[in-house]
Amino acid sequence: MRDDRQQTLTALVLALRPYGEADCRVETVTAEQGRVGAWARGLRRPRAKLGGILQPFTLVALTVHSGRGRVITGAEMVRGFRILKQDYGRLTAAALLGELLLSVVPQDEAAQDVLALSVAGLDAMEQEEEPLGPLLAVLRDLMQLLGWGVNAEICSVCGRPLFGDCFLQLEEGTITHGACRRLGMVLSPPTLDTLAGRDGAPSLLALEALAQLWQTHLERPLKSLPAVRSAFRHLA
Ligand SMILES: [Zn+2]
To answer: How high does pLDDT run on average in the chain?
Structure first.
């Protein structure tokens, strides 16, 4: 007999919060229901069946039982991102993405697009030689998906194409020519290329610009940002 309280979700595990003696609250973003938190009983016991699977940045087919709270009854690995998890820089980049997802994805709303973008981003962070590039792309594209995208092609004052050193107006989320408005955060041409989604070497300046935009939208500092800055300081 089919049990309506049992469902299987495509879920990206983002965080584990220890609870009690051996339990965990598992925070995920799912394609079907957006942000979902569920209990994993006994997950912190040494030989827990799902211990190797329910790890941050693992894509799983998650079976949950909804009764008094959601309880995880099964999980099958879809993507493990094993290489990403073994590399500090890649993991740091992923952690920033995870923090953003837990901040902006609502509960009880399908989130296929956000999940697809995130999985593609993790894939690129795992495979590309320099994971900062894929992180910047995901920071930019996720903002676009949420309707917070910045127009990095056209000056918001004169309406002409942007070129040269420009200025980012954080509060308005717009960019202007230096000649039109000498105020805000300076964007060098390579940083402008990154914000516009054109190819360019990933830079810490682009990270700063995107992170500042995110912080303005979230109205709080990003906890994972200092670790990302430090992991990629060799690019300065
Ligand atoms: Zn202008």
So the answer is: 94
**6-79 is classed CATH 3.30.460.10:** no
Centroid of ligand 1 to alpha carbon of 175 (angstroms): 9
DSSP character for 162? P
Specify the pLDDT at position 201.
84
pTM of the predicted model as reported, rounded to 2 decimal places: 0.94
d(CA 167, CA 4): 54
Q: Which CATH class is domain 84-235?
A: mainly alpha
pLDDT of residue 1: 56
Handedness of CA 141, 147, 150, 154 (dihedral sign): positive
Looking at the predicted structure, is the pLDDT value of residue 25 above 90? yes
- Distance in angstroms (rounded) separating the CA atoms of residues 20 and 176: 53
| CA of residue 106 to ligand 1 center, whole Å | 37
Angle value at C-alpha 105, between 14 and 44, nearest 5 degrees: 25
